[in-house]
Design brief:
Blueprint (H helix, E strand, L loop, with lengths): L6 E4 L20 E4 L7 H7 L5 E4 L8 H4 L7 E4 L9 H6 L3 E3 L6 H15 L2 H9 L15 E5 L3 H12 L3 E5 L2 H9 L3 E2 L3 H7 L2 E4 L13 H5 L6 E4 L10 H8 L4 E4 L20 E3 L8 H20 L5
Parallel strand pairs: 1-2, 1-3, 3-4, 4-5, 6-7, 6-9, 7-8, 9-10, 10-11, 11-12
Helix pairs in contact: 4-6
């Protein structure tokens, strides 16, 4: 069967790095369009993608639904890094005859980044770097993780890796979540909070690491945050929508928790319109870097390119 040469679009390559990856060579023989700019309007995005037969989606950065698919009559295949999530309408893809591939990966990069956010927050790393660059020497006293309570909401793959790394540094691990998380915590010898209220109240550092679903949207409430200590740190490297809208901004203004480190936002990318958290002195904001790492990109995108080549080698049979 003849291998198809396809027109492929890779969306939302914010760093313009995909062409530099070793795995990019897998697309030799195809026509490849790489978009570095995010297009939120489906009509404008469709104009950019005319004639495209294959889409490569990096995580959940672009919504692919009926509004977009109906404007892309040539589209045959979508290769998704990671699992298809809320951004990808699988029923609409099926109705339009578009084959969807998913990829498998690890949670190492996000777990490492979560630990980085914890330590940077505790040691006031970013403001101290800014102070030194401004000619000011040592203005804060940081705190160590050793001996403090690291509370983990959701003990999945990322949560377990963060817990193990933090435990190695001497943190006391406290867990809350669904029954599976509480059971896994007990198996690992970690403390399960006596209640949801106690979980938020006892945390020195609290990491939100549950998956976003219709059931978990707004899972962390204003009442939960109000129970936290005035010197506690909340870290969110999962999804912004896990916290009730506006609750974290209000909580930081009220001083419970005293600090937050946030890598995720309701609307991304955050560009000209600043997010309210960016203007808060007690919040460290990063541009969704948890997943963004070289080995992750080589693995995930390499798999997506393999899927496209598999589809092309089948002559479009899927």
């Amino acid at each position: 069967m003849k291998t198809l040469a396809m027109k492929i679009a890779i969306l939302d390559d914010f760093q313009d790095c995909v062409r530099t990856l070793n795995c990019f060579a897998k697309l030799k023989g195809h026509e490849v369009l790489v978009l570095n700019q995010h297009f939120g309007d489906p009509q404008e995005l469709a104009r950019q993608l005319q004639g495209v037969q294959a889409l490569v989606l990096i995580r959940e950065r672009t919504v692919v639904d009926e509004a977009l698919l109906s404007r892309l009559p040539d589209l045959k295949v979508i290769a998704q890094t990671g699992k298809a999530g809320r951004h990808l309408d699988l029923e609409a893809c099926k109705a339009h005859g578009v084959v969807v591939y998913e990829t498998q990966g690890t949670s190492v990069a996000t777990a490492e980044f979560t630990l980085l956010m914890i330590l940077a927050s505790l040691r006031n790393l970013v403001p101290e770097v800014a102070n030194m660059n401004a000619g000011v020497w040592q203005r804060t006293l940081g705190r160590q993780l050793h001996g403090r309570t690291l509370a983990i909401l959701g003990l999945g793959r990322i949560g377990e890796q963060v817990a193990r790394a933090a435990q190695a540094l001497g943190a006391n691990i406290l867990v809350w979540g669904r029954e599976g998380s509480r059971q896994k915590a007990a198996e690992n010898g970690w403390t399960v909070a006596a209640s949801r209220e106690a979980f938020f109240a006892q945390a020195d550092v609290l990491c939100i690491l549950i998956r976003l679903s219709p059931q978990t949207r707004g899972h962390v409430t204003a009442e939960d945050l109000a129970r936290m200590k005035p010197d506690a740190i909340l870290v969110n490297t999962a999804r912004a929508e896990l916290i009730q809208p506006g609750a974290l901004v209000a909580a930081l203004r009220a001083g419970r928790p005293g600090f937050a480190a946030v890598d995720v936002y309701e609307q991304e990318p955050v560009l000209k319109d600043r997010h309210p958290l960016q203007d808060m002195p007690n919040c460290l904001c990063t541009p969704h870097l948890g997943f963004v790492e070289l080995d992750n990109y080589e693995s995930y995108l390499g798999q997506t390119f393999d899927h496209i080549n598999q589809y092309a080698a089948s002559g479009g049979a899927g």
